[in-house]
Specification:
single chain; elongated
Length: 192
């Protein structure tokens, strides 16, 4: 081996190491989002318990409340908490799965028409990737170029599908805001 070849190999190794470091950082960032959800839910649960005690104290002082309206506001606020948790959880998982899948071998062919069964497979793998983001479905070592090419196409479609699913978090956030404001208004209206 000549020195130019050795230098080129070293340069490729450094580039590969840099890409892996960036990939690991992106995966860690995605995991931080999911972990932050747990902290926020614990904080919300503690706040609800404290707020419930405050409501009990206020009812002892003679403040009149409409129980049915108060129940409706609690249901809306509970839906807000669940939707907020779901939004953050799905966002973290989507980022993690998308980063992992996009790092795997893929081949995007604009002219390829995916048969119905392949679209079902892609959707199932995307759903599975939300539960277990780091999987090797469509990304194994396959015998034969035809099977390999087909799985690379399916992985590319999975990457595109996961990228499209990222829009879900914005829908969840918008619903979260609407539910929160509605629940807060109804809560205030329950006191006379």
């Amino acid at each position: 081996m000549d020195n130019n070849h050795i230098e080129r190999v070293k340069q490729l190794q450094q580039e590969f190491k840099k890409k892996f470091t960036e990939f690991d950082k992106n995966l860690a960032d995605a995991r931080l989002i999911s972990r932050g959800v747990i902290y926020k839910i614990i904080l919300l649960c503690s706040t609800i318990i404290g707020f419930s005690l405050t409501l009990i104290s206020l009812s002892q002082m003679g403040i009149h409340t409409d129980i049915n309206t108060l129940k409706l506001s609690w249901y809306l606020l509970l839906a807000t908490i669940v939707l907020g948790f779901l939004s953050l959880f799905v966002e973290g998982r989507l980022h993690y799965a998308l980063k992992w899948r996009s790092f795997q071998v893929q081949d995007y062919d604009k002219g390829y028409v995916y048969p119905f069964i392949d679209r079902i497979k892609v959707w199932l793998v995307c759903a599975y990737s939300l539960i277990f983001p780091r999987n090797l479905v469509f990304c194994r070592v396959y015998k034969g170029t035809k099977v390999k090419k087909h799985n690379e196409l399916l992985n590319a479609k999975a990457v595109l599908t996961l990228a499209e699913l990222e829009k879900l978090t914005f829908i969840f956030e918008n619903l979260f805001i609407v539910l929160f404001i509605t629940g807060l208004i109804i809560f205030v209206m329950s006191y006379r």
